[in-house]
């Protein structure tokens, strides 16, 4: 097995452990069924007394087999590994850990964030925990809808079931946890340290580019541009900098061309020289 494969499985293991902690410490003890198979397993746990981890595994088996038949091996062995180990972690940790809070708001916030961080690590490692992902893909295949809409349908049904089983207030907390989980997944997937991208349009593009490379030690890309109103050809500069360098960049541009047109926007992740390196 290649080194990257080992790193991926380590990442999946760590991510499922964090997700299981979110379930065991916060979500399940406080009856917060935040969508997906884990949410459905939480409802079934309180209705029938079934272990959450084992229930997740049992629910995932037909989804995995259906996915194998319909979607092929695209989701691979990493999904099977993530599904099994999340169930094992959940039931094992339940024997040793107890909820640190009975406040539903705190539980939904911390449980949602921990689950999202864990799932984000799993996804970033090329894995999955099955469940909602597979159900959404199957919904999309049979109902001819996007996986995003399929995901929304699955989670909406689980949260609605939680509202009927517990109460509307807990369903609202589950929705909050689901939103936080989604945001945390995005943050982990896209990278937490935001950089800034600047697009600079100026008649002094050459001078600005030289100063950026000399003063900020950042690369500059020149793009061919044309003003549609004036019909004038000019070079457009693209610069990516750290957040701490934005003020210096704006001052540098203003000193050369106070009339320059500058657009600064957020970037979630930058890979390459001067930023985070590619993982091999």
TrEMBL record:
GO CC annotations on file: plasma membrane
Pfam families assigned to the protein according to its UniProt record, in alphabetical order: DUF2179 (PF10035), YitT_membrane (PF02588)
Membrane topology: Multi-pass membrane protein
Compartment(s): Cell membrane
Name of this chain's protein: DUF2179 domain-containing protein
InterPro entries linked to this entry: DUF2179 (IPR019264), N-reg_PII/ATP_PRibTrfase_C (IPR015867), UPF0750_membrane (IPR051461), YitT (IPR003740)
Transmembrane segments: 7-28, 48-68, 105-123, 135-153, 159-180
Family annotation (Gene3D superfamilies): 3.30.70.120
Domain of life: Bacteria
Location of the DUF2179 domain: 218-272
Main location per the UniProt record: membrane
Organism: Moorella mulderi DSM 14980
Keywords assigned by UniProt, alphabetized: Cell membrane, Membrane, Transmembrane, Transmembrane helix
